[in-house]
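Recap for those who missed Tuesday's class. We walked through two folding examples back to back. For each one, the amino acid string is listed first and its predicted structure tokens come directly after. Nothing is annotated here on purpose, so try labeling regions yourself before you check the end of the notes.
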Amino acid sequence: MSIGNGPAREWRVTGMDCGACAAKVRGAVERLPGVGNVDVALMAERLRLTLDVSRTSPESVEKAVRGIGFGIAPEGAPPERPRKGFVMPEGAAPGASAPPAAEAVPRQDAPPAAAPRRPWYRNPKGRLVIAAGLLLAAAWAAQLVLPADIAHQAFVPATLIGLFPVARRALATARAGMPFTIEMLMTIATLGALVIGAPEEAALVVFLFAVGELLEGLSAGKARDGIRALRDLVPGTALLEVGRHTRQVAADSLAPGQVVQVRPGDRVPCDGEVIEGISGVDESPVTGESLPALKEPGAQVFAGSINAEALLRVRVTKTAADNTISRIVRLVAEAESARAPTERFIDRFSRFYMPAVVGAALLVALVPPLTLGLAWGEWGYRALALLLIGCPCALVISVPASIASALSTGARSGLLIKGGRVIEAAAGVTHVAFDKTGTLTQGRPRVTDVVALGGSEADVMAVAAGVESGASHPLGLAIRAEAGRRGLSAAPVTGARALPGRGAEALLGGVPVCVGSPRLAEARAALTGEIRSRVAGLEAEGKTVVVVLRAHEPLGLIALRDAPRADAGEAVAQLRALGVASIMLTGDNARTARAIAQGLGIDHRAGLLPEDKVAAIRDLRSGARVMMVGDGINDAPALATAHVGVAMGSGTDVALETADAAILRDRVADAAGMLRLARGTMANIRQNIAIALGLKAAFLVTTVLGLTGLWIAILADTGATVLVTLNALRLLRFRPCAAAGRPAAGAPASPEA
């Protein structure tokens, strides 16, 4: 493949409904000079590549894709119909009708209106199945009224009419440099059957192949429905406040700062902040959380959630293109590009597998007649059947179909996983490392004690609030909140800066002031024996203590407590039930860490700076597969070091954009759900591979022995493909975040249920 040096370009490709389709598109453009980094996403219908326009133009890329029968349109343009007679129309879902060529259709990462549906029998693949079936039935009926020789030939037109679109695609892909496709094998086998005098079986093979393609398309459409459903969560309109009145506007036109009204029963049209009203909001469509969340002024709401009780006034905080739903859709679409190692191996394997099958078929056709004097017709027939059995469609689709279903299921359950690579890595996790603050604990510490050592409590709080005035760390926020509750103004400091893992410092009237851990104060020789004793007593109560220094002299102590999350103990227990060990990594002091860890039944390491957490993860990695769960901000280095990094956060930018995966709802127990989903997906993939290879191996033996013929051979191919896809779709019913042993009503506890 030529390596493209230009910028990345993107197109929407329509008409893809199986792994083989994506492989054809990839193969058609990889051969062009100046093209590199080709990425074809089947479910997202996306082609992305880098292109050296001095060697190949974008129009040449589009011509190559159209040449093998698919529709292609540049990023942001209306989708294009695939060429008639090659593949089905736009959307690749047999139930979806194609829009007119001039009709503008939103891109897949925007929330478009649902595509109009029409029955399967009104699209080209459905019509081909009906036509081939009617011709086949007519040929069988002719056997009842016509002489045997004439009736036998009635199957020839049934075969040729049904084979025409298949042969057309075979020639197109062969011209594009891809001769080893299922269409080419079908064409050779069917024409060969006519030559050796088996038109009835040839007609039946063509009909079964058409049925198989129709079912593949239906399955692909079903697999895409999860992402379509996410896009459709956002309502099309919103009630925008304009002065004292409201008017209905398009939801995608809302801008940050505007105020909308959300009536009871309405879906929230934007990500925003409640400024008036108190109501329960059903966030299950977005986060998977089954219980309504109480929203009051200051609370955040997600686009797509449902207001259940009372009128809310909401200030828009994000544009439609950047709201939680849009980012989830983009993330899931992008995740398809992060292919699992198993999928990459199968892709490489299939490139050598098909030529090997063709070679084996030639040997079956030639060796027995030439060496043993056996009948040419009989062994030619067996070779043709072997060609059909050998197509790797079911094997190629076995992994991406399961991954696509798992990504959709995860998104519905508040679990965002960035691709098959992450799923495969998560399935092998043996240890989970948790950050403490904001992960195992609520991340909302409160000040419990203020000890003045030099001045008043008010002085201690004012100085501390001034130093923490720009802080985003939970401890800093808690100190500022306590100062506000006491009616104190923050001291006017300058030059405030953070000391990662240790505290913060600034200047107050030219004098250095600092708020930091006892370890920092110890390093600055600011602690006496009496102060150490007070610190130890507070830490023994499970509190976090910070020391306020002025000119390197202790001004006071502030103790804070952050309660564990309600489900933290459940998370540790669920992981233990999965055979996964847990450990807490924290920069907090050893006494506080021990108190929390003992309450949760988890191992711990305390007093860790960010670089110490990275070292701890590296230690664990040496003999285990490690998942790190953190808040996605302070723990970024550790998240990147672990085999799988998981960010906590209810739809925050960092939680969605960093790490390998994100937990949307504030439930640390969902970490166990992510592992259950990953393990269930890999089990499903293994089942699919066993189905694909097992059926082919069984029918390969029976075909060579002459026990089965052409129509069984095509069932071994298309039947295996449909079985694999249907098995993968079972993952859509999987409920990964139901507690172990207690599946959601009406849903299996695991994909093997």
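Example two. Treat it independently of the first, because the proteins are unrelated.
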Amino acid sequence: MKFTVADLLDQLPSEEALSLTKLEKALGLSQKAEKNQLRIGLDGLIKLGLIEEGEAGIKRLEAPDFVTARLRCSSKGFCFALREDGGEDIYIRDHQLNHAWNGDRVLVKVTREGGRRRSPEGGVQCILERRTVSLLAQVGQQENRLVATPLDDHLLTSIELPEADAKHLDPELKSVVEVHLDRYPVGQFSPLGHVSRSLPVNGGEAADLDLLLTKHHLHGRPTAPRATLKTLAASERTDLTAQPTLLLEAWSGKECPSLAAIHLEARDAGWTLWVHSPAVAERLGMGSPLDLFLRDQGEALCVGRQWLPLLTSALAKASAFKAGEKQEALSVALELSPEGELEHYRFCRSLVKPVAQVDLAALDAMAERKAKSRTVPAALKAIKDQLPQLENLVALAALLRNRRIAQGSLDLDLALPAIESLGDLAIPGPDSQQRGWFVQLPEHHPAALLREYVLVAERALGQHLLGLELPALFATNAAADPADLNDVAKAALALEIALELSEEGNASASELAQAFRQTDRSRGLQQQLQAALKPVEIGDTPGPHALAGLTGEEAALAPWCSPALHYLDLWNQHVLVLLLTEGKDRPSVRHKTSVDLAADGCLGAIDWPLLAPSALVPFKDALQQGLVQRLNTRRRFMAELHRDLLAMVQARQAEPLVGQVLPGVISGVQSYGFFVEVPPSQVEGLVHVSSLKDDWYEYRSRQNRLVGRKNRRTFMLGDAVEVEIQKVDALRHQIDLAVLLPEGEDEDQDQDQEFTPIAVLSEA
């Protein structure tokens, strides 16, 4: 089908009716079969009470009884609807799924309110958008049917295949197949599909990437529409080409996004920090076919040594910064006090000419260089004239970081392992992407420097657009739930970690992070802490940003410096360009006194309409059509893709180690066993409780440990253990481990007692 139910509803305004002809045009429907499908969809939505149809057309109705959610199912058959409004998850029983699958976007009706220890329950009323259009599977025979069993055990179904696909039966699992869905389940009828191609299981790094892209439906990306990019006139821009601007190179992968350029000037009472962003928004029209295409893509995706870019090749080439070449930019001058506080700012459309690229090797050499050394290392000779500026940039970044940490922001020592095939994925970008914490990096790392500067620039634009009441998109990050933090604190106290709690018995995330850094169980505790932190979300209204340590009026943070990385940044660039080019700096032409719309001094001084109402229509329409929800969904998709890539790379690292005994650290404890991280790849595997043959083990949830009933041996978070890697399933990212008992222990001491050790819940 050419459209989804979500697409249909997004096109319908709630204020006024839309004619059927206009709706068909908006959805791009021209064929009779497509229009018949639309009619079926409309009739169903009318019966649900979501829309009404009259002489004036079709109108969307308010539906307070329905909740929009994303379905998440476990391999055990439990399903929950994760609400998009941030409310409590809704438990969906099997008979209430109505053929919805894991990952589907659905409308849910709550049938039973939740209690103190019980989640609310509900049923799926409508599937808004199917996530699974194809999947990876194994072909097998069930009775007289040929079926495909999904590799993803969250999909609790099998797909019936035509007999012609029997050639893909593979009992030795040397390959898996990609199955396209021809029909989703209807009533008592099973889903139908067909094999589109076979993929090798052990074909090397390139084949693994193909498997990953196929799983996430990225191997056949849509083609961008043809577009003529706008030519930018140099006469309308501020000439900053004399400024010795630097390019801090964090990434080196194929088609990696272009990032912001930086320049720092010392002044009598502090600093002036210049942040220059590639001028992408100016080259395409807001709401143009190319802009809509980029909006659908949402993000540039790192897949290891290469990227799936957000921008088209022509747009990336036209806007990217290069050392020694003039380039158009959107810039901000940030005036900072000696303590790093933002005092004033001013935006402009500019022309810059970066003088040099600075990578990690150069910054490492600068950090290792002795303060009074007269010799210049080879890695620094090309940029020796910029060394004073670089030293100031490192010092300012450290100042900004310390200020951020003091305000409650978190840097956790949870960097990804140094595996070559992870490529740029192991290097965090200038933002947190979706995490609610920053990866701890060396102070002179290019990514660490960019992070601090970009945060200040995003704060400036957020305050500016909020003060002018323009349709910005904001990054928000709610503080962690105190109850979740208390659970982490209890786990730490059970490990005899010294903590200072408030009078109410609570601890903040930053206080926990500080305490954990000083322990020998730091990594495991930091992992527990990061699991309690809220992710960064996109919203059309500002909110707290715990990650950046921002609350109150300062919490308006509008990303705009990385338009090649996120459409979010491109949107805010569109708003900024509109303000700079079409904003009215005085009530009328008769007024001789104007205000500077690009600077913070204009806030509170404007009592006239800044922009023509027609200029804001494309922005308002996009927000009404669910742009924020789609961008947040795309960010969650990106996070899932990156988790899968990391898990597959780590599993491949573990495959040659099957049968070997290696040291590891317990990273989590559950009733069914405990997880162990094995360096240097930090691959995580499970030691199942049934493999602990020396005793009967109880799970003590409050102490986060397993305890033997007879020998009192304990396995708890952060313990060093030796494990044997027994089995690796790279496709499902499952690693089976067996723990080795300390030497000298007699595992057969209780052979006269015949029992099977199991995990039991000893504490509520």
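Answers for example two:
DSSP finds 15 helices and 34 strands in the chain.
Residues 474 and 539 are 5 Å apart (CA to CA).
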